[in-house]
Amino acid sequence: MAEVRNKQVVLRDYVVGFPKESDMNTVEGRITLKVPEGSSDVLLKNLYLSCDPYMRILMSKIDHEGFGCYTPGSPLAGLGVSKVLESGHPDYKKGDLVWGMTKWEEFSLMNHSKHASLWMDVVLASHILVSSLSTGMPGMTAYVGFFEVGSPKKGENVFISAASGAVGQLVGQFAKLTGCYVVGSAGSKEKVDLLKNKLGFDGAFNYKEESDLDATLKRYFPEGIDIYFENVGGKTLDAVLLNMRFHGRIPVCGMISQYNLAQHEGVTNLAHLIFKRIKMEGFIVNDFYHSYSKFLEFVLPHIREGKVVYVEDIAEGLENGPAALVGLYTGRNVGKQVVVVARD
Amino acid sequence: MAEVRNKQVVLRDYVVGFPKESDMNTVEGRITLKVPEGSSDVLLKNLYLSCDPYMRILMSKIDHEGFGCYTPGSPLAGLGVSKVLESGHPDYKKGDLVWGMTKWEEFSLMNHSKHASLWMDVVLASHILVSSLSTGMPGMTAYVGFFEVGSPKKGENVFISAASGAVGQLVGQFAKLTGCYVVGSAGSKEKVDLLKNKLGFDGAFNYKEESDLDATLKRYFPEGIDIYFENVGGKTLDAVLLNMRFHGRIPVCGMISQYNLAQHEGVTNLAHLIFKRIKMEGFIVNDFYHSYSKFLEFVLPHIREGKVVYVEDIAEGLENGPAALVGLYTGRNVGKQVVVVARD
What we know:
seven-stranded mixed sheet, Rossmann fold, alpha/beta, homodimer, 15 strands
């Protein structure tokens, strides 16, 4: 069997500070489109790749236990939607559309047993979920973070940072469906308009235009915040702690404002965890497989009825992947950032 | 009915920074030893007063919602053991020994309905709990923080800061009874010896002698920490976050290292909450009345059998109260700090 071209986005070297496009190279590798005899590998043609904030963490040399890190000279890895070209694994067959962990390249030979924990076994050909990258991993993240970690009650006050992002926009809609009052912060007028006009938030503000976040939060939440869905960390978290209500919950999904800093910003108001008996809990969606069917049961009808919508930012072509990924950390994307490698 | 002398410790003015003895005055008030006709007040003769770290918070002008603050010119308030001299309340009668919220003075007229939430209704005359100040509030705090917030499992690794303090020493013993590996930090050789030789800790260190807390924790916990019982905050918390295990829990009981600082130290490693899926939860013992009988059921047999012991630091005389209280914040006390106002 002849080899074919396999374009790849590889990490040049471990990243310090803000990632730049030049931290990645687009190279032309070669691949034989064949699953090795007797192996249980699956050969994928990658269609869509997901740009997610956590990927910055993997670009650092430090392995944050379990998060691991990328290898310089090798392609990035991340979530993607792919088509099965050939399968040595009984759960997959040629033509299946799957989503889960794959690599930033045109074709990937993935080993199911190694990546089983990453939901390669979710086939979505027949799903209404057109873009599983948008509603799949971020949706599941929003679902478990908001419902299972946040334990919302009807009428509660919910604040979401990075609210127009992949996860934030869904948390906001889930919170509205739960009967909560929902305010989000984002980094541009366009995003704020989106939150208010398209995504149904009760309020939204551009944090870059607020000189006193504490005062801003007091304006939007005169009675305080019951649930803060944490995506950014740093100064925002510090201001939020001053504005939490008794027995508030802070599901900690991400801290994107901190990932590129050599020294993270210090959070000084943690004593409010005691004063107000606040629960702050980090979570990773991978720990919640058991809730996946519950999530689908919840989200699919809402998507079908148009009660949950989704904003995506699409970059065309693998070679535009590095710019799309880097854009996450300056907030260039509006909505969930996806890279199209191929349409089918 | 004639008035008698009522020595009081009053706050001079709101405190900024470290509290000093001179922030309090010992004054001679007068009191009529009589419950007003028709009232449900209880007249107490105060015997023992409890010095607790949270009291510094009440000395600041800022009311941390629900914590409240002391009033300059008025006596401090805190937990105490008192004898009922006269009672307008059906639950108490002359001669009862009670513990709960009282004032820093010889005699107090307390209103049960106002202070009901503070366990005035726990009569201990017949209890084996000789010093209810030591095993009562701190014991209950240790119990709910460790068991209900910390959810310990046999064999887990537990780290406790301010470990020889009122709450810490009990958390350590409860953790040993649960089959955990327990290490504590404290601020002097004497306290470290106490932890290792009297209180049964597996290890203990003097944090003042450790220049690299992260390295120290890695030495005591090569496999990481499952439960960190947080009493101090600041730099210790920051080092602990680097050493937590997956799904670790941090019951946040206090942050004594921070209460005297105008600007609290910044905690920079909170992203580890995500990496390791850590739950950090502030709690206040007052929220857990419902667990009080469970606590007694657990603790009384252990005290009777000598399996839970207690180290106290006794100051004689109300006039020595300010020095005793201030000593908490420099770590002068060894064990639970109590002030004796009268022996009976």
